[in-house]
Amino acid sequence: MNRTEFITATAVILFSAFVLGWFACWVVQRLARPTNANMGELDHMAQQLHDAEETRDQAIAQLEDSEARLNSRLRETEAELQAAMDGLRESRNEVEELRDYIEKKLARR
To answer: What pTM does this model have?
Structure first.
């Protein structure tokens, strides 16, 4: 086998491998192509996914709104509690002052 025959044989083998690979790829694509029924099912699934995403977004929005309202109510309640505690503290101070005053008045007698 001389050099020319070797190059020709190699070229034929490589070309045959290319054609065989191309044919195999074509067969696989032909067999893997989705049918109309599959496309309809895929469209239906895509619509369901879209609806589910919209529902999820609405649920998240409602959750955020509810959380904001609850946080607002919590801040209001904490403010009211602080005001009540301050009022109670002032009342206790007044009661102590009145007790001291009464004890001093009773002690002077």
So the answer is: 0.53
